[in-house]
Structures are given as C-alpha cells and as structure tokens.
Fold Glutaredoxin.
Amino acid sequence: MPVMDQIRTAVESHPVVLFMKGTPQYPMCQFSSRAVQILLAAGGAAMHTVNVLEEPEIRANLPRYSNWPTFPQLFIHGELIGGSDITAELAESGELARMLGEALPQ
C-alpha cells in the first residue's frame, strides 16, 4: 500500500491518532512525551499511536499529507489538530477533553 494511503487509512480508521516519536510507554522526544501525557490526562487513553521512528516512510511523508512540519501530530476525526503546543492549549481551555469525549467511547 502506498505510504499516503497508509497515512490516510490510519487517520480515517481511528477517531484519535497521534503520530509520535516512540510509543506512549517509551516516548523518544519531549514533545511526544508531553502530548501523550496531556492526552491521557484529558481522557485519551483509547488513542491510536503511530511510532514514526519505526515507520520512516510515514515520517518522511506525513508532513506532506498534513501540511504540518513537526512531530507529534494529533488527528481527531480525520482532522489535524496540531502538535504538543496546540494540544496543551486545548487541554488548558477544556476543549481537548470535550473533543476526546466526543471522539472516543467511554
């Protein structure tokens, strides 16, 4: 499957997807670690994650797909939300918990 189709499938098959460096248990950069902690605190335990360090083709092409240059990248309902800074801002306002509550089964 072409890499752009792999990305599209991941984004469309899961209500919440975090493309990150490493895994939730072993994040490999501070921004990915921060995003995971924020998502878990806001109710995102059922999120799907993709380790871009194990998927070099996805890592190389996701910025083209999303038009966002850095990692992590959070998608909710197929829409790019942003990276760790935007995720943190949404969490502070309470908006992230609302979005996750609508996207994920409780």
Residues 30-41 form the longest helix (12 residues). The chain has one domain: 3-103. The chain is about 50% helix and 15% strand.
